[in-house]
Structures are given as structure tokens and as C-alpha cells.
Amino acid sequence: MILSQKIAFKTAEYLLQINAIKLNPKKPFTWASGWKSPIYCDNRVALSYHEIRTFLSNALAQEIKNQYSQPIVIAGVATGAIGIGMLVAQILSLPFIYVRPEPKKHGRQNQIEGQLHKGQHVVVIEDLISTGKSSLNAVSALRDLGAEVLSMYALFTYGFHVADKAFEDSQLSLKTLCDYEHLLTTALHKNYIDEEQLKSLQLWRKDPAKWTI
User: What angle is formed at CA 122 by the lines to CA 33 and CA 107, rounded to 5 degrees?
Assistant: First the structure.
């Protein structure tokens, strides 16, 4: 669920403007999973732009402030959401922690970095939702330490059914600043893509594992 259409369109415009999201149906990218994809997303690029990172962090912070009155901890999912998560925590004057994909192999072997006590309420920040697997892995780590995870907020989601099902099964609310549909609408309106490319991008989202040029 997006926070609002206004925020979704503005987020899409910003991410396309700085090439944090690249659309290229004619020369697809290859994901780590092996999927051929006409879209590549690296929202960490936004951290290099003061106006854009301010917009993104303020939008998340305002929504969290409106939703929760009890003391909470902000958790960023490593590595992509550490920067934006810390900005949100700073705006709200809240504690911040981050969650690694797995425990470190050395030192204290932490998976969660920062101060977290059993029973604390946590809101998780993520930069990108694809299948949801890595995002929910972070949630599981927090729950294993006794935290009560209230919800997750992300900058962008592809809106895959597998992710929707995973969050539903985990009984966790997910809200995002932008999603795939608003991204494509913005990309077409701003002439990043044409009608033919739009159709290809829409087909990819329906079955990304089998999509071809």
C-alpha cells in the first residue's frame, strides 16, 4: 500500500531523475536470481542528493509519527536502508539499529547492530521490496530477539504477488512511498519510456521469471 498518490508520483519522478531506477526493456539487466529484467533499482543513489533524501526521509518520518504514539525503535535493513533509516530516526529523535542479512562471522557475531531490548516496539525501514525474502528475514531476526515489529516502510516495491503473500503470512503491514504502477505512469508521462516499452514492462511484472525481450 502506498502512502499517497502524490508522494508516489513525486518519489517516482525523483528516482527516475537521478537514475536510481533505470528502465531499459531493449537491453535488460540480469538480477542475482538470474532473471532478465527491464528495470534496475538502486535507491541508495538518493542519499547523494540532499533535496531527494530529505523528501524521502521526511515522508517516511511523517507517516510513522502519525501512526505511532508509543516509544519505538527504527530499524534499517542492511545495507540499502541503513542510510535512509538513520535519517528517519534522526528526524523523529528515535533510537536506530540495523539488521544484517546474517550474523557476522567474527567479533560478537551480531546480526543486529545497536541497542535493542526485549519487548521494544520496532518499525523497519527498507529501500526496496522484491520477493520480500530478505526484508522478512530481518523481521524474523528482530522477533527472535523479542522485539515487537509493528510494521515495515519501504521506498519502492515491485508489487510481486509472492511478496504480498509473504507479508500476509508474516502478519506484517507494509507501506511504501512508491510502487511499480506509479513508476510506469510517471515514466511514460515524463517520456522515459514509450507505449511499446510500457507494454513490455507490464508483461515483465506479470511473469518476471519467464520474461524475454
Answer: 65
- State which H helix or E strand residue 63 sits in: helix 50-67
In whole angstroms, what is the distance from residue 177 CA to residue 84 CA?
Answer: 13
Locate 103 and state its grid cell. 550474523
What is d(CA 155, CA 125) in angstroms, rounded to the nearest whole number?
8
pLDDT of 180-212, one tens digit each? 999 999 999 999 999 999 999 999 998 888 888
Look at strands 96-99 and 112-113 and give their pairing.
antiparallel
- Output the CA torsion sign for 91, 95, 98, 104: positive
Lookup result for grid cell 528482530: 142
Domain that holds residue 157: 5-206
Whichever domain contains 194, its CATH number is: 3.40.50.2020
Q: Report in angstroms the alpha-carbon separations of 2 from 5, 84, 162, 204.
A: 7, 17, 18, 21
Model confidence at 51, pLDDT cuts 50, 70, 90, reads very high
Place of cell 535512509: 84
Residue 4 CB contacts under 8 Å (≥ 6 apart), including other chains: none
For the stretch 96-116, pLDDT in tens is 999 999 876 676 678 999 999
Most confident of 30-34, 35-39, 145-149, 161-165: 145-149
Q: Which amino acid is at 68?
A: Y
- Structural domains counted in the chain: 1
pTM of the model: 0.94
pLDDT value for 107: 66
